Automatic annotation (TrEMBL), chain A:
Name this protein carries in UniProt: Ubiquinone biosynthesis protein UbiU
Species: Paracoccus thiocyanatus
Gene Ontology BP annotations: proteolysis; ubiquinone biosynthetic process
Primary role: Required for O(2)-independent ubiquinone (coenzyme Q) biosynthesis. Together with UbiV, is essential for the C6-hydroxylation reaction in the oxygen-independent ubiquinone biosynthesis pathway.
Subunit text: Forms a heterodimer with UbiV.
Pathway(s) per entry: Cofactor biosynthesis; ubiquinone biosynthesis
Amino-acid positions noted as binding [4Fe-4S] cluster in the UniProt annotation, renumbered to this chain: 170, 177, 194, 233
Coiled-coil regions listed: none
Family: Belongs to the peptidase U32 family. UbiU subfamily.
Superkingdom of origin organism: Bacteria
UniProtKB keywords: 4Fe-4S, Hydrolase, Iron, Iron-sulfur, Metal-binding, Protease, Ubiquinone biosynthesis
GO molecular function: 4 iron, 4 sulfur cluster binding; metal ion binding; peptidase activity
From TrEMBL, chain B:
NCBIfam families: PRK15447.1 (NF011991)
Presence of the UniProt keyword Iron-sulfur in the record: yes
Organism from which the protein derives: Paracoccus thiocyanatus
Protein name: Ubiquinone biosynthesis protein UbiV
Record's keyword annotation contains NADP: no
Length: 331, 296
């Protein structure tokens, strides 16, 4: 059966995910070392130790994401996170920064290393390079690849692949995007945040709801309509072609989230080892519901049964779902 | 400190490319990086210009390197990357995966779209043979200073993004094609219509970003004109200038005067505004502020 890798932003979410049938949960420490560095989220060292004990007692694995890029002059914080994850019994660490991976491979030779999606290893050469150089055992593929391309990659590599199937969707190659810091000064790579709430402002102006990120208007909707969270790449913008024609809309991506449920059999056929659910910022109730649905889906896939349709529609952001880059026409 | 000109980000015609490098040969820059940086579909239209451009630049005493793509996915792109390393010229990697093709012991350069955020990564790249590293544009000055110092110890020249629209993101999706209701595979090369990229504005008409095929650039012209002294003190080896339409030679001369202290940094912005009228100049990244924060 394909491995289901589920988000745990809190110890309660970890327990909920394990109880709902997660084979594996992933989490991070409560600091800048992980890419979901949000207030009130993530784990202390003690909480990780308890979470690992809870998961292991029920046959589940725990991965620790240390997937931001260490700040120059301050690498010790990231080195300590890797050492603590190893000491507290994490089954693997998920890393993105080559310097940190080199450090982990040298200092913790027994520790299983997964290459984070934030490393954006998008072809077999890159993946094989990380495998040969650092001994990484699994790669989380960037969300820029089609199912055909994932199939082709799996033919040329020996390490396991993990892909996102549900939740928030980056339209840019992950770990290679500075849009957030361009607008706010804070970025996923440096600070573990994207379009952070600290820089979001909502206002009602002339009969419209407006959502801003920093100094920039990202959404404007008529009163009575919900205004989406102003994630920069999902914003509504306008662009003129210089010949009198212009386009207004979601120039980069609609405020849709990823739902690749129906592609699970194809991903299994493509040789994908693990399916990942995004959403460490989500509630434990959400996590439990999504995990239960996906556990049923991977079990159905294992038996060659059809995928449950529309099971999760009302959980997707803005009520719209996409299969993203997995379908070639998305590009 | 000296000047490096990065690869052309936009889809220019072969004639534009030829004219650009001929003009660049007579400018006060020390080195030039040439190659298709954004989309491999563009390459057949202009790659035959590369040998002549290399020749004219080398004849003018410039150091020349060849750039890889920023996002390498297709078989053809991987093959092209491998071929670059057989050219005999230094290769500037724009995607870390390109290192798979690095011949044993061959030196290479690292472009601004490779994530070099700390000493650990810089030292690791130096051990692989990196000679020069242009840092990601989003880094604040404190990080730049740490990395420049680490670079001096490791024998790596550290560059910063000096001037031009900054590369902010790369995607599997082509936004230029999307703006024309097309998919990437049937793009009909519409990005060629916008030799300086296509402006994206907010719904309030505020210029914000620049779409360039699969790449998203800043709308603002990032300029370190006012921070040249701080960068020099930090030990930065070079400023990277990014090719643009218009009088790019004038841009290179302005920065050369700044480096020679023939131009006061306080006056540089006024000169830049004359060279690139209507542009918004910004450099918030170095100050740890939003990158788009305009220069005062």
């Amino acid at each position: 059966m394909m491995e289901l890798v589920c988000p745990a932003g809190t110890p309660a979410a970890l327990r909920a995910a394990v109880d709902a049938g997660a084979h594996t949960v992933y989490c991070g420490f409560a600091d800048e070392t992980n890419a979901r560095n949000f207030p009130g989220l993530n784990f202390s060292r003690e909480e990780l130790a308890e979470g690992v004990a809870y998961a292991h007692a029920r046959g589940a694995h725990v991965l620790v994401a240390i997937n931001t890029f260490p700040r120059a002059g301050d690498q010790a914080l990231w080195h300590r996170a890797v050492a603590d994850a190893a000491r507290l019994g994490a089954d693997a660490v998920i890393l993105a920064d080559p310097g940190l991976i080199a450090h982990a491979a040298n200092a913790h030779p027994g520790l299983r290393l997964h290459l984070s999606v934030q490393a954006a290893a998008a072809n077999p050469d890159a993946i094989n390079f990380y495998a040969e150089t650092f001994g990484i055992r699994r790669v989380v593929l960037p969300r820029v690849l089609s199912v055909e391309e994932i199939t082709a990659i799996n033919r040329e590599i020996d390490v396991e692949t993990e892909v996102f199937v549900f939740g928030g969707l980056c339209v840019m190659a992950e770990g290679r995007c500075s849009l957030s810091s361009y607008a706010t000064g804070l970025s996923p790579n440096m600070n573990g945040v994207c379009s952070p709430a600290s820089h979001v402002a909502y206002a009602d102006v002339a009969g419209n709801h407006e959502a801003r990120l920093g100094d920039f208007l990202i959404h404007r909707t008529p009163k009575g309509m919900p205004v989406p969270y102003p994630t920069l790449c999902k914003g509504c913008f306008t662009s003129a072609d210089g010949k009198g024609d212009s386009q207004t809309g979601h120039i980069f991506e609609d405020p849709a989230s990823l739902d690749a449920t129906r592609l699970i059999p194809a991903l299994q056929k493509a040789g994908v080892r693990a399916l990942k659910i995004e959403g460490r910022q989500r509630s434990r109730a959400y996590v439990a519901q999504v995990v239960r649905a996906f556990r049923a889906a991977v079990e159905a896939a294992e038996q060659g049964a059809p995928m449950p349709e529309g099971l999760l529609a009302r959980l997707t952001e803005g009520q719209a779902a996409t299969t993203g880059a997995y379908a070639k026409t998305w590009r | 400190m000296d000047l490096t000109v990065g690869p052309i980000a936009f889809f220019w015609s072969a004639e534009q490319v030829r004219a650009f490098y001929r003009t660049l040969a007579d400018t006060p820059v020390q080195r030039v990086v040439i190659g298709e940086w954004v989309c491999s579909k563009r390459l057949p239209f202009w790659q035959h210009e590369i040998p002549a451009a290399v020749e004219v630049l080398q004849a003018a005493g410039k150091e020349v390197a060849l750039s890889t793509l920023t996002l390498i996915t297709l078989k053809r792109e991987r093959r092209q990357t491998a071929e670059l390393f057989a050219s005999g010229l230094p290769v500037e990697i724009a995607d870390l995966g390109a290192l798979k093709h690095l011949p044993q012991g061959a030196p290479f350069w690292v472009g601004p779209t490779v994530n070099v955020y700390n000493e650990g990564t810089l030292e690791w790249l130096a051990a692989q043979g990196a000679q020069r590293i242009c840092l990601p544009p989003e880094l604040p000055l404190e990080s730049v200073a740490q990395l420049a110092q680490a670079g001096r110890q490791a024998g790596v020249a550290v560059e910063v993004w000096g001037h031009g629209r900054a590369p902010l993101a790369i995607s599997g999706r082509c936004y230029h094609a999307r703006l024309h209701d097309r998919a990437k595979d049937s793009c009909q090369f519409v990005c060629a219509e916008d030799p300086d990229g296509r402006t994206v504005e907010t719904l309030e008409g505020q210029p914000f970003l620049t779409v360039n095929g699969v790449q998203t650039l800043s709308y603002t012209q990032m300029t370190v004109a006012r921070q040249v002294d701080a960068l020099r003190q930090a030990g930065v080896a070079a400023l990277r200038l990014s090719p643009q339409p218009g009088d790019f030679a004038a841009v290179t001369r302005l920065y050369a005067r700044l480096l020679d202290k023939g131009l006061d940094p306080g006056d540089a912005l006024a000169d830049l505004r004359r060279i690139q009228p209507g542009a918004i100049f910004a450099q918030g990244f170095l100050e740890g502020r939003p990158g788009a924060a305009p220069c005062p």
